[in-house]
Specification:
alpha/beta, 627 residues, 48% helix, 7-stranded mixed β-sheet, 3 domains, 9-stranded mixed β-sheet, 22 helices
């Protein structure tokens, strides 16, 4: 029997047969309408003599309307709301036409209704019910035969609104998916206990019970505006019970405005670490960026490229994207071109350490706002190559800052790092030296020099999350330097938006410190990533500890011990009160430091760095002997 059903579903019935069956249904509906009209008794002679003509007229009208609108051409087992709407209109309009003929027969032809009005109404209602319900019955039977209930995977959908309904229908119409929705979850108390398309709506408090009683394997978060706290609570409950968490993408990313199951992906660790949307003072930012010429160094990097995307929203005159990395710069150019990002932009391939090249850039393009994001940032790499950190992070910054001063740039925004606070490595110390230089230069310059300082950004090049993802894809192990190591994290868009906010509020000379939230244990991050992918630590993938790398410390800081902060109008941005330096003295020392590059003597270079930054104490490094 099962094989016969399968054979039946493998082939579509000829279209003419669907039309014939629809006409049979209409004939049956009309017959039932007469029976109901006369209370299952014999039809009176005066009405009975018109019955053959009634059937002929009604069925001809139905045949013409079905043929004209092609309702019979839809594949019945894939009946959609559009098919239902078409059938509804065809039946209603056809019945209205019959009613109009009835009026004509009364006033212009035979002097009475050739078909009782009540029969027309009953026939329309019965036809609608049978034509539509029969299609949905066949559709339900088809899906049940293709995906028997015993083979289905139980799913819960979070969100009983429009997005939740669309998600359920997406699961229903995809033949290849063997999912069975056992319940909806929603925060709206008014919806609890109600049903949606035959599925009951529950409170989030019932989640764990639903998982256990229904052997749920997946929960799909369909709601778009869900708080990060709520998302984390749901995810934690699911992960503790071995349930995978999936996420419906924003409607703007649906293909041709329609959601497909392939777009429903596992929730990402980035989705759980991000914070609620930042409230930006768009008017203040716009006043600083609108119709301005903007230069962004390191524009092909994670932060630089996102700053460019954010700046483009404020209608600047032109954006210049500068980087020395050819392929990444080409990629960002293609992205901006494909997305038709306006205003006008131009890519500049150049090295910030080349004074003549940079001078030509400033002379030619005359930037009014400079975002300086170009830097070497990997701690172990710079620990092994101190001279390069001096050349790029110190000399490169000095060149861009000096030219900004020389060409009367309005604002210079320096993207620094939390590793510049009480540095334990060469990279952090080089960034702190760059901070000191631009701060001291800003005291006498008309250019407003502003520093922004924040920690790790999620998904940036070289950060732990892309590295862990790659290690998981390769089957592991995941490598972590120390079981107690922690880091602050912020999303790339969040960091970039706060940079723009600091740009607008800065008066010059400030170090803006971003609220990074709570520090996160890296091993906890790795374990959560493993669980989100449905894996088990120690079974599917291992975590191993490799020891702290040169210059690495367990805990990052955002402010040095001797520093304090002042609040701003933005609760996520503080102003760090730091020691002021004399520019002439700083300029002399830094110039001497840069000259040590020619010696290629790492110990001499690092010693000069420690002289300038007394709080620089090396950790797990060969340079500890210099402290």
């Amino acid at each position: 029997m099962y094989r016969l059903f399968n054979l039946f579903w493998q082939y579509n019935l000829p279209r003419w047969s669907i039309l014939f069956i629809d006409l049979i249904i209409c004939a049956g509906s009309l017959s039932l309408a007469f029976i109901i009209k006369f209370d299952f008794n014999t039809i009176p002679e005066t009405d009975f003599r018109n019955v053959p003509y009634d059937f002929l007229i009604v069925l001809l009208i139905r045949l013409f309307s079905f043929s004209y609108t092609k309702t019979y051409k839809g594949v019945v087992r894939y009946t959609s709301s559009k098919d239902v709407s078409r059938i509804f209109l065809v039946i209603v309009l056809g019945s209205v036409f019959v009613f109009c003929l009835n009026l004509l027969s009364l006033y212009f032809f035979i002097g009475y209704y050739f078909i009782p009005t009540s029969v027309i109404i009953i026939d329309a209602l019965v036809s609608l019910f049978v034509l539509i319900s029969s299609r949905f019955v066949i559709k339900a039977l088809y899906f049940e035969m293709k995906n028997p209930a015993k083979e289905k995977i139980n799913v819960i959908i979070y969100g009983a609104g429009e997005s939740g309904i669309i998600t359920k229908r997406t699961l229903d119409r995809d033949v290849a998916i063997k999912y069975n929705v056992v319940g909806f979850l929603d925060d709206d108390l008014k919806k609890h206990g109600q049903s949606l398309e035959g599925i009951f709506i529950f409170s989030q408090n019932n989640l764990e019970d639903l998982i256990k009683t229904n052997n749920v394997e997946y929960i799909i978060i369909s709601i778009q505006k869900i708080s990060i706290k709520n998302k984390n609570q749901i995810t934690d409950i699911c992960l503790n019970n071995g349930v995978r968490v999936l996420n419906v993408p924003p409607a703007s990313k649906w293909i041709n405005g329609e959601l497909s199951f392939n777009q429903i992906k596992s929730i990402r660790i980035e989705d759980l670490l991000e914070r609620d949307s930042i409230k930006l003072n768009t008017d203040m930012i716009s006043s600083q960026l609108e119709n301005k010429t903007i230069l962004i160094t390191g524009a092909a990097g994670s932060i630089g490229s996102e700053i460019a995307r954010q700046c483009s929203k404020f209608n600047p005159k032109k954006i210049y994207l500068l980087d020395q990395a050819e392929s990444p710069l080409h990629d960002i150019e293609l992205e901006f071109t494909d997305k038709l990002i306006k205003p006008a932009f131009e890519v500049i391939m150049a090295d910030i350490r080349n004074t003549d090249r940079m001078k030509n850039v400033f002379k030619t393009f005359k930037p009014q706002v400079v975002f300086h994001a170009a830097a070497y940032k990997h701690v172990p790499m710079m620990e092994n190559n101190p001279s390069e950190s001096i050349l790029t992070n110190v000399l490169g910054t000095k060149i861009i800052a000096d030219l900004s001063h020389e060409y009367n740039t309005e604002r210079f925004i320096f993207v620094s790092t939390d590793k510049a606070v009480n540095p334990t490595n060469v990279m952090g110390a080089s960034k702190r030296i760059a901070e000191i230089y631009i701060q001291s230069l800003g005291i006498t310059s008309k250019t407003k020099f502003i520093t922004t300082r924040f920690g790790n950004v999620l998904g940036s090049n070289g950060s732990v999350i892309p590295r862990f993802k790659k290690q998981i894809e390769q089957g592991g192990p995941i490598t972590i330097t120390h079981p107690e190591i922690t880091r602050f994290f912020m999303t790339i868009p969040e960091a970039s938006q706060l940079v723009l906010e600091a740009t607008a509020m800065g008066k010059g000379g400030e170090i803006f410190v971003f609220d990074m939230g709570e520090s996160i244990k890296i091993v906890d991050l790795a374990r959560k990533m493993i669980l989100l992918l449905g894996m088990v630590e120690g079974k599917d993938i291992n975590i191993i500890y490799t020891g702290l790398r040169p210059g690495e410390k367990l805990y990052e800081e955002l402010l040095a011990n001797t520093e304090n902060t002042l609040p701003t109008h933005h609760d996520q941005i503080l102003i760090g009160k730091v020691r002021k330096y004399d520019f002439e003295e700083v300029d002399t020392i830094i110039t001497e430091l840069i000259k040590t590059f020619d010696t290629q003597n790492n110990e001499l270079i690092v010693q000069r760095m420690k002289d300038l930054v007394p709080e620089f104490k090396s950790n797990n490094s060969i340079f500890q002997k210099l402290d």
